[in-house]
Design a protein that fits this description.
8 strands; 45% helix; binds BIS(adenosine)-5'-pentaphosphate; alpha/beta; binds magnesium ion; binds zinc ion; 10 helices; 13% strand
Length: 239
């Protein structure tokens, strides 16, 4: 399975990419996550330059992004496929990806647009947090951990009396001002790749306003309509 997920900030790209990756046993590759990992070292000048760009809601330059993706796709775990979350993000990046895939002899199975209204995105992003240990994503309203002080996935626990030692992490670009900048960047630079892929006949659209499980089902259906039809068919009669 080789799939690209496109959508504005907070559309659910990361959420759906993780689910697809687990189900199909392929890596989910998020350029945002790769860049965030690079920003952790305060003494790394390139990392700090990337952080400043991300905190302004702008795009990291193509020469850095395209090379990083090309190297990532060459890793052995991408042999049977990958889910791209957040790349490409401009027509120039889409063209670079086409060239790269051609050189590597790889064909895409689909490009999926996760459509969401802008006003919903701010609510989604402002409620988002993740486990600092395993990275599992949560939401204040839509996906709460069963225990507010413990991660459902890896079991990491925090001391409720010591908020400094919180296991929960919130992203530095998830403030209202940066989110507005990220949305502007999406509409001006990323949205033009939708007609680009539509003209190639590979674009599929799902309704990202639906509940998480529903969006997952829609994605499975558009990627494999036969499988989708099977799911929707009435139960078989025996005897
Ligand atoms: P990136 O990390 O990709 O951020 P983004 O595109 O702004 O998207 P998000 O990660 O915020 O949202 P998401 O769609 O993954 O939603 P999520 O699943 O978390 O990029 C960050 C920055 O890196 C960019 O601004 C740029 O600077 C740089 N960058 C990245 N790629 C680049 C590139 N190719 N070129 C140049 N620069 C690049 O969901 C959000 C929340 O909503 C979660 O809490 C989730 O639980 C909840 N949720 C999800 N789905 C649903 C649902 N159906 N119903 C209710 N809640 C839901
Ligand atoms: Mg994400
Ligand atoms: Zn965890």
């Amino acid at each position: 399975m080789r799939v690209i997920l496109i959508g504005p900030p907070g559309a659910g790209k990361g959420t759906q990419a993780t689910r697809l990756a687990e189900k199909h046993n392929v890596p989910s590759i998020s350029t945002g996550d790769l860049f965030r990992a690079r920003t952790k070292d305060k003494n790394d000048p390139l990392g700090q330059q990337i952080k400043a760009i991300m905190d302004a809601g702008q795009l990291v330059p193509n020469e850095i992004t395209v090379k990083m993706i090309s190297e990532r796709l060459d890793q052995p775990d991408c042999k049977n496929g990958f889910i791209l979350d957040g790349f490409p993000r401009s027509v120039e990046q889409a063209e670079s990806l086409d060239k790269m895939l051609k050189e590597k002899g790889i064909k895409l199975d689909g490009v999926i647009q996760i459509g969401v209204d802008d006003d919903k995105l701010v609510e989604r992003i402002s409620g988002r947090f993740s486990c600092g240990k395993c990275g599992e994503g949560y939401h204040d309203k839509f996906k709460k951990p069963a225990d507010p002080h413990q991660c459902n996935k890896c079991g990491a626990k925090e001391d409720p009396k010591d908020p400094e030692a919180s296991i929960w992490k919130r992203r530095s670009d998830d403030n209202e001002e940066t989110v507005r900048g990220r949305l502007h960047t999406y509409h001006t630079q990323t949205a033009p790749i939708l007609p680009y892929y539509d003209a190639k006949g590979v674009l599929k659209v799902v309704d990202g306003m639906a509940a998480m499980d529903d969006v997952t089902r829609q994605i499975e259906d558009v990627l494999d309509p036969k499988q989708g039809a099977k799911t929707l068919a009435p139960p078989k009669k025996f005897g």
